[in-house]
Amino acid sequence: MPREFTPKVVTANALIEGDVVYQTADDRWTRDLSEAELIKDEGLANLRLAQAEGQPELVVGAYLADAAPSEDGPQPTHFREEFRRTGPSNYFHGKQAELTDV
Predict the structure, then answer these.
(1) Which residue, 71, 66, 60, is CA-closest to 29?
(2) Are the C-beta atoms of 36 and 23 separated by less than 8 Å?
(3) Where is this region: Disordered (predicted)?
């Protein structure tokens, strides 16, 4: 029996900067997961992924990541995606430098 489809976001890395980016419902790329399109239909998810893969001048390594809905937009459901969202693992540059409680 096939597994039930779980909501997804399309994520990739920006080609030039290397930052983690997410596809929005209006076909933009954002660095803010809360702005990402949360896709609840498997067919649409595969279509959106194909569209992302067709933008090699903007992004690389596009894939579908599990996400859960929340009042603040999609949230990661796996440690890997939470880690990617918060930026580099060595502190005091990039997204890590923006955290005040580090």
Answers:
(1) 60
(2) yes
(3) 69-102
Q: For 54-82, how does the pLDDT look when each residue is reduced to its tens digit (9 = 90+)?
A: 999 999 999 999 999 999 999 998 888 88
Q: Which amino acid is at 27?
A: D
How far, in Å, CA of 38 to CA of 41, rounded?
9
The partner residues of 59 in beta bridges, in order of sequence, read 14
Q: What does the pLDDT look like over 9-57, one tens digit per residue?
A: 999 999 998 889 999 999 999 999 999 999 999 999 999 999 999 999 9
**Closest Cα partner for 53 from 63, 43, 44, 68?**
63
- Minimal CA–CA distance to 82: which of 94, 67, 71? 67
Q: Quick one: 100 exposed, middle or buried, by C-beta within 10 A (0-12, 13-18, 19+)?
A: exposed
- Whether the Cβ atoms of residue 16 and residue 31 lie closer than 8 Å to each other: no
